UniProtKB/TrEMBL annotation:
This is Breast carcinoma amplified sequence 2. PANTHER family: BCAS2 PROTEIN, PRE-MRNA-SPLICING FACTOR SPF27. Keywords: Coiled coil, mRNA processing, mRNA splicing, Nucleus, Spliceosome. One of its GO terms (biological process) is RNA splicing.
Amino acid sequence: MAAQEIFDSLPYYDNDLDVNPNLRHKVEQEIALESKPTQNLHPLVPPPFQLFTKNPLLKAEIERVESHQPIPLLDSLRYQLPAPTSQPATEEDWRAALNNAKAQLEHQRIRHSNVALLQTYGPNAWRIHNYLFESTAKQLELALEELKERTTEVNRERKQSQLRVGQQLTSLETRWTELISNVLQIELANIALEAEVNQLGRKETELSMSMSM
């Protein structure tokens, strides 16, 4: 189904409030007496876009940023190498501590490999990343300029349409005023003619009576 059309006023044509400043105060008083309008958006406005609906981690991060919450502190316990706390330590305790140390060593080895890969391929990857971002930014800027031009064109067409319709309304209103004035003049002329006819009728009656005597 097509979107419902909304007929509003003609702000480019209607200047009653500017011509009669007293009307503005009366209009504001009437608006203050009316109930508050509902905060409904225009039917053509799309619903709000939900980000990261399929990624709960990123969605939670967005909510954290929107609520101005601080970044959680890093868990440093996972990088420590604690010795067995039980005294005397059992073989299982030492085995768990040894496995933790091996995991930490493997983690550091992977980090070292990642740093080496970053030093080798990181600069070019970062340049490509920036190039893509710049290209995206230029496309968005062009889209924004196009949208602004379309908005200006819509407002220009809207103004021209309202001024054109306003001229027709002014012409029709002037014609209506002239017709009403003509009707009033005709009614006044009819009243005057009726009065004259009545007066002539009375004179005719008086002459008839005087001649009969």
